[in-house]
Amino acid sequence: MSAPAARAAALERYEAVIGIEVHCQVRTASKMFCACAVPPPDAAPNTHTCPVCLALPGTLPTINRAAVEHVLTTGLAIGASVPPATRWDRKNYFYPDLPKGYQISQYDLPLAANGSLTVETSEGPVTIGITRAHLEEDTAKLIHAAAPDGRRVSLVDFNRAGVPLMEIVTEPDVRSAEQARRYAEELRLLLRAIDVSDAEMENGQLRVEANVSLRPRGTGPFGTRVEVKNMNSIRAVERAIDFEIERQAAALDGGEPLRQETRGWDDAAGATYVMRVKESSDDYRYFPEPDLPPLVIDAAWLAALRAALPELPAARRARYRALGLPAYDAAVLVNDEGMRVAFEAILAAGPGLPPKEVANLVTGDYGRALNETAERTASGLAGRADAASLAHVLGEVVAGRLSRANAKEVVAEHVVGGRPAAAVIAERGFAQISDADAVGRIVDAVLAANPAAVADVRAGRSQALGFLVGQAMKASRGQANAAVVQAAVRERLGRGGDG
Ligand code: ADP
Ligand code: MG
Ligand code: ZN
């Protein structure tokens, strides 16, 4: 059986129950509990450390206000509730990447609880409950390598120790790999929209883990769950979950009990493998952090963060739909910051333009120009573009004074050079001739010069019609409106719309 067929068969008998845990590096200048700068991804090992994040005796943590604000902002954006006060807890375990022997985290009083995110799927919208979002610190990185003398050594890079991480945990509400992928995509979009993180998976700023279990369809209790880690892209998240669904279904069918364990995803092999048997939270001996005071979140602080929230992606998509855009266009624009900015700017500069035409320009000709230059104007447009010129181009197209083929060239040239679109159109001689009298004069001359072709058309050979239209276009140096030329030729040769 093929993989999709095996999965489809498994899903007839079993229902997947999935919860997603996301770790997100929130954007701050300094680390979570010390003044070290957050290292860039390419920083040399152990260049961003201090006595606090190295856990030297006698040092004390201090709370990074910006990191707290990012989690509160996220909480507001997912409709979560925020407690009036919270505190920090120690999560104790021994591992060489954890210098203190515990991680400062939050246990029973997270900064945000009971939120949700609604995602579009192929089966319609699905709302995923979000249990909590809390703040914690990242660990150091272990590098297993060979020393110059050939010995195998483990090296510790403490740069990431103490980098602020927000953990966002869902309810076990996800029912398929597709829903998990859409949740991860929507959450990443949201985190970028509210400006709390760049959320780049390839830089480790966003890590997505999935807890996957199966239960026979129509039954209540959840099955034994497996936690899957090490997915390096959202596509990998989807593939890993699909793999687990098949693997677990085969095990259950074979009467093999599943173990609660942590598995890693091997992207090249397209399979998960056992990493370790899962710890339970009892093993961590959580207790309140005595070195930090409780954190009071007063209403005015929260209100200020709420007031600073931008329009969220879901609301934006809904607004674009209300402008008459298809769901697909609305999603494309909201997913791409560069296109979204241009769409808004062109609409503002040309309020009478049909929004669907603006979307077509932005995702088409402008989108191409946007991808070809990394340069951005102060307002976020591609290259040296300005919204008034882009609106002018579209206005000319809509009015029939500029062909779409020429519009593409004008946009490309305007984006690179920044010259006003009207000037480019004039200089390139792109002004399209749509005036029926002017086109008629050109057509009359062409018909007079080509009596043989005219006779052919009259004799019913329609190929000759195309020839005459082509000659008229040529005579106008491509400036005539092709549709108006067609109509003029047909009218003069007494042929209707039959071709
Ligand atoms: P842990 O302490 O191991 O991280 P949590 O209780 O925080 O465990 O749950 C982690 C994630 O696993 C959550 O997203 C939760 O919704 C999900 N989850 C819990 N039980 C199951 C289950 N039986 N099957 C799938 N996911 C589950
Ligand atoms: Mg967890
Ligand atoms: Zn430090």
Compose a concise summary of this entry.
With 499 residues, the protein is of the alpha+beta class.
How much strand?
15-25%
By DSSP, the count of extended strands is 15
Taking all Cα atoms into account, the compactness measure Rg is: 31 Å
Instruction: Tell me which ligands are bound.
Output: adenosine-5'-diphosphate, magnesium ion, zinc ion
Strand order of the largest sheet: 5-6-9-1-10-11-12-13
Query: Considering DSSP H and I runs of 4 or more, what fraction of the residues is helical?
Result: 40-55%
Count of domain modules? 3
Number of helices: 16
**Mean pLDDT across all amino acids:** 94
Main sheet: strands, sense, barrel: 8 strands, mixed
Terminal Cα span: 52 Å
Shape type: elongated
Class per helix and strand makeup: alpha+beta
Low-confidence stretches: none
Describe the protein's topology.
Blueprint: H1 3-13, E1 14-25, H2 65-77, E2 85-86, E3 89-92, E4 102-105, E5 112-121, E6 124-137, E7 141-146, E8 152-157, E9 164-170, H3 177-193, E10 206-216, E11 226-229, H4 234-253, E12 261-266, E13 271-277, E14 287-288, E15 295-296, H5 299-307, H6 313-322, H7 327-335, H8 337-349, H9 355-372, H10 387-398, H11 404-417, H12 421-427, H13 436-449, H14 451-458, H15 463-475, H16 482-493
Parallel strand pairs: 11-12
Antiparallel strand pairs: 1-9, 1-10, 2-15, 3-4, 3-14, 5-6, 6-9, 7-8, 10-11, 12-13
